[in-house]
Amino acid sequence: MLKSVTAHFEGRKSRGDITVTKNGLEGAPIYALSAPLRQRITSQGAAELRIDLRPIMSMDQSRENVARLRPRESQSNHLRRLGLSPVARGLFQEAWFDHRDGLDLATALHNVPVRLEQPADMARAISVAGGVRQAAVDSGFMLRQRPGVFVAGEMLDWEAPTGGYLLQACFSTGYLAALSVEKWLTRHAG
């Protein structure tokens, strides 16, 4: 796990923990950036996310730490001495070999490129994009084209955060839709 990192994409950033799996990356920072990442992957076939492995440390602090490293030690030892977890070291080394781009070690630690080529398939999805568009429902979550049919939660097209926020949004829209159902039934009973 990458603890307390910052993910950057197209001028947006999100901080938190990222889990690295054999299939890719998961976690709040990825979910927060999922819409623009997905759009880039769809339009260009891939997206390059940048991860700052040391977001609480300034560039000057990172440079000072790197300057204290013993020059004859391996890069693996340097990364270990800098306090990177085994997962962070592995991700960094993979990116470093592919994208050195003339960056010094301190700068590279704040700017690790990760190429993303596709979102997880539906079987692995926690939440998915798409659904009923906002314009298709009224303020009570009833479908404009199908009176008496109401939608809520993940049936709606919105970029839903995962976890407690997602659950709260589903409960809240469900509650409001239920109130609307009750009003609609009262008006149309009989």
UniProtKB/TrEMBL annotation:
It holds the Pfam family HI0933_like. InterPro entries: BaiN-like, BaiN-like_dom_sf, FAD/NAD-bd_sf, RsdA/BaiN/AoA(So)_Rossmann. Residues 56-178 form the RsdA/BaiN/AoA(So)-like Rossmann fold-like domain. This is RsdA/BaiN/AoA(So)-like Rossmann fold-like domain-containing protein.
